[in-house]
Amino acid sequence: MSNQMKNESDTNLLQIYQRILAGYITSIEIALRQGAFEEIASIAHKMKGNAGLYGFSKLSEMSKFLLEYAEQHKKNELTETFEKIKDYIRNEGILKI
Questions:
Q1: Which residues of 22-50 are buried (b: 16+ CB within 10 A; e: fewer)?
Q2: For the chain, first and last CA: distance in Å?
Q3: Between 1.10.10.60, 1.20.120.160, 3.40.50.11690, 3.40.309.10, what CATH number should domain 3-91 receive?
Q4: Would you list the domain boundaries of the chain?
Q5: What is the SS3 assignment for 19-32?
């Protein structure tokens, strides 16, 4: 595979991941407003796995904490961690949110 094809493939994969991640962020925001801890846990689990799959190990680790707080119904910690995740995503240029 040529470098140009690899770069295009990497760009396409990143764009796919960005769409997936944007959906997760929106869904978590809605679920937080509704206090839907089980829904947040489900999304956080997917977010953790996908972040690892796409090579975002720090985001995967942060999502692990989001999952744990959702499972424990710790709304304050959950909200704080979610804000940290959004800051990280924004600061790393992963997604414009």
A1: eebbebbeebbeeebbebbbebbbbbbeb
A2: 33
A3: 1.20.120.160
A4: 3-91
A5: HHHHHHHHHHHHHH
Q: Give residue for tokens 């499972």.
A: 71
pTM of the predicted protein model: 0.88
The pLDDT tens digits for 46-72 are 999 999 999 999 999 999 999 999 999
Residue positions counted in the chain: 97
- Quote the CA–CA distance of 95 and 93 in Å, as a whole number: 5
